[in-house]
Amino acid sequence: MIQKRLPFMAMLAVCFLVSVAPLAAAEATAITEDLKYVVDQVLLVVADPQFKEDKKARRARIREIIGPKFNYLEMGKRSLARNWKKLSAEEKKEFVALFAKLLENSYASKIESYKDEKIHYVSEVVKGKYAMVKTEVVRKNDSLGVDYKLLRKGDDWRIYDFIIEGVSMVRNYRSQFSKIIRKDSFAKLMEQMSEKVLKLEAQIDQE
Questions:
Q1: How many C-beta atoms lie closer than 10 Å to residue 190's C-beta?
Q2: What's residue 104's pLDDT?
Q3: What CATH number is given for 21-206 in this structure?
Q4: Distance CA 152, CA 159 (A)
Q5: CB of 123 within 8 A of CB of 34?
Q6: Do residues 139 and 42 lie in contact, with contact meaning Cβ atoms separated by under 8 Å?
Q7: Using CA atoms, how far apart are residues 35 and 143, in angstroms rounded to an integer?
Q8: pTM metric for this prediction
Q9: Does an H or E element contain 27, and which?
Q10: 158: Cα separation from own chain's centroid
Q11: Taking the chain (207 residues) in consecutive chunks of 10 residues, what is each chunk's mean pLDDT?
Q12: d(CA 201, CA 207)
């Protein structure tokens, strides 16, 4: 069964970008600043009084903001790993669409709980078409490392994984998805993902 903790706060350990040098200041800032802008826009929506009573509108607005920054196709391919190649073109399309809904709602439900957190942008590293921006979420009594892994497509850098305290979202999904497919089937995976999305969306009305 797909765990309730998927993302934004729990994943399996991963190591990334070993021995890579930071980008030149101007280029490094461009990647980080673009990410910061997106995160800041989401936090503004979360804090906006006009969305306090209209949670569905707030969730829709968050999806509009994060959608262009998330590389759902790359996330989906990496999460399914070898099972991706076994799917038909239509199955891949359906999976990515459902996976996007799962990620959007999971991310939104977590970030909507933010209150007095401060986000510090710690560093940025790059290797070819891959980059990672390290951040720290500072809370009242502790802090949490949240790193964003990005892939360049043209002139655009889009997120394809999160690492929370050394734990990778993609690897976590991959482990769960492979178990479900191996034990049951791809159809069963889609069924469980659909159920999870419905639960996440239902929570909006229960808040």
A1: 16
A2: 87
A3: 3.10.450.710
A4: 9
A5: no
A6: no
A7: 20
A8: 0.80
A9: helix 25-47
A10: 11
A11: 45 28 53 92 89 86 92 96 96 96 84 78 93 90 89 93 89 95 97 93 72
A12: 11
